[in-house]
Design brief:
The chain is α/β, with parallel strands linked by helices. The protein folds into 3 domains: 99 residues, Arc Repressor Mutant, subunit A; 97 residues, Periplasmic binding protein-like II (D-Maltodextrin-Binding Protein, domain 2); 100 residues, D-Maltodextrin-Binding Protein, domain 2, CATH 3.40.190.10. 39% of the residues lie in helices and 21% in strands. It contains 12 helices and 14 strands. 28% of the residues are buried.
């Protein structure tokens, strides 16, 4: 995040002081530099991120050290590590910059036909598959100057939102963060999916059959267990017989087709793949809790008309699931 030329428009009056600190000695771009330096813990990497020369980034660090009367970053071997003060400033500086960024970009209205803006969204490949095709088609027609970057969910998506690196998170409600606003985007149910050539399963599947078959599951992140597995264990005291752990939701139907395996899939995604792969949907033998996906944004973006517009676009793009 870099706020270009903001210092010239946001200089403080020399007489204005915060406590004993004369704010006229610190322009906004020095805070941007401090944010990058504390985050990268490297003058070279911070310079590259800020599109500055290494000497300019080093000069910024010298001015910051003078202002704060602290080293902020110290060299230990080949690494730079923050001092106690530097470490304590990291989150506060980033939060300050996010607030300023939201303030200077604030608009009373948003015209998608004329605006030029890039949105960064973090979501699973499941959500991207069922929501983004229709949204992308509409955006091409109505918002030719709006661009998108889609990022895969990480183990800690909330940290990405806190840093302001994404505009929206779309994730299961149970993983949303209470410090930022969110709203339910859609609900989905789980279904069993088997190959059309699977002779072990008829039109219905019993619990014994479900637990005896080999399963294909998805694990999102290195440390997060499959949520359906967790539910099965809590409800029945044992896990499914997992034979393949896939790297994405979209890989699952391809690994079921042509085998005697089964997968528990989101209904909307299963319906997409049943149109193109030899698969069929079977109702699960027990009622399963629905999946609730929410869309979440940074609290400083609450009143942003562009956020409100995009939120509505994504909701309208969602296909209806058949019951």
């Amino acid at each position: 995040m870099y706020i270009a030329n903001a210092a010239s428009t946001l200089q403080m009056d020399p007489s204005v002081e915060f406590g004993r600190v004369n704010l006229n000695r610190l322009d906004l771009n020095l805070l941007v530099a401090l944010d990058a330096l504390l985050d990268e813990q490297s003058i070279t990497k911070a310079a590259s991120r800020l599109h500055l020369s290494t000497s300019a980034a080093s000069g910024a660090l010298s001015r910051l050290r003078e202002f704060f009367s602290d080293e902020l970053l110290t060299q230990i071997g080949r690494r730079m590590v923050p001092t106690p003060l530097g470490a304590s400033l990291k989150a506060q500086v980033r939060d300050c910059l996010l607030h300023i960024h939201a303030t200077v970009e604030r608009r009373l209205s948003f015209d998608p036909a004329t605006e030029r803006r890039n949105f960064v969204l973090m979501m699973s490949d499941y959500v991207a598959t069922i929501v983004m095709p229709a949204a992308a088609a509409r955006l091409e027609r109505e918002a030719p100057g709006v661009t998108f970057e889609l990022l895969a969910n990480t183990d800690t998506p909330w940290e990405t939102l806190d840093r302001g690196d994404v505009d929206f998170l779309i994730l299961p409600k149970k993983f949303s963060h209470p410090e930022h606003p969110s709203e339910v985007l859609f609900e989905d149910s789980f279904v069993c999916v088997v190959s059309t050539g699977n002779k072990l399963v008829g039109k219905h599947i019993s619990m014994d059959q479900l637990l005896s078959l080999g399963h294909v599951v998805t694990r999102v992140g290195r440390h997060r267990p499959p949520t359906v597995d967790a539910w099965f264990f809590e409800t029945f005291g044992h896990l499914r017989r997992t034979e393949i752990v896939a790297m994405s939701f979209n890989a699952v139907p391809h690994l079921v087709a042509g085998t005697n395996r089964v997968a528990m899939m989101h209904r909307r995604l299963a319906e997409v793949y049943c149109r193109t792969l030899p698969l069929r949907i079977i109702a699960p033998p027990v009622e399963m809790p629905p999946l609730i996906e929410v869309i979440q944004w940074h609290r400083y973006r609450e009143s942003d008309p562009a956020r409100i517009w995009l939120h509505e676009v994504l909701k309208a793009a969602l296909p209806r699931a058949t019951s």
